[in-house]
Amino acid sequence: MAGGSRYGVEIRAANAGDAADIAALLSAASSPPTAREVAERLEAAAAGGAVLVAENWGPLAGVVALRWVTTLQQARPTAVITALSVGEDDRRRGIGRLLLKAGAQAARSAGCDLLEIAAASPDLRGFCESNGFTPAGERFTRALRKRRGGEDDG
Predict the structure, then answer these.
(1) E strands within the chain?
(2) Alpha-carbon gap, residue 112 to 94, rounded angstroms
(3) Rounded CA separation 14/58 (Å)
(4) Which terminus of the chain, N or C, has fewer Cβ atoms within 10 Å?
């Protein structure tokens, strides 16, 4: 999937060759993946959703990953943004908005009726609100495997 261009930025589907740049874009995450881990996960991530990148001169400028989720409460799937990151040098140039627009189009094409950001860190709050998102409650998470050190989660 290729998207529009703005300021020389092209939005396109991610491929295995993008793994190192995507890992660098996600390096600020609480548990950032390595380039190898990204390469291993890209195909699976795109199978039930989409992974789109903003290609600029040099390293990638940004990435958005979406997952299509079917729930019992909704008649149609929900598109959940699981990652959204723009490189520090490329922020405030409209790249995040371009990624969001391309992701929303991919979600509509997949039959989704709702777009949710699961990876909304506090620094993304203003971006989300300025792009039409409204808060929809709090999320809780729980590990499904034993933690290191032998503690049981269950």
Answers:
(1) 2-6, 9-13, 49-55, 62-69, 78-86, 114-117
(2) 24
(3) 15
(4) C
Residue 64 pairs with which residues in a beta bridge?
A: 52, 84
Domain with 108 in it: 2-118
- Number of separate domains in the chain: 1
Report if residue 137 sits inside a domain.
no
Any domain includes 132: no
| DSSP characters over 71-92 | -SS-SS-EEEEEEEEE-GGGTT
Write out the H or E segment, with its range, that includes residue 42: helix 35-47
CA 101/CA 11 separation, integer angstroms: 10
Which pTM value belongs to this model? 0.82
Looking up residue 80, the CATH number of its domain turns out to be 3.40.630.30
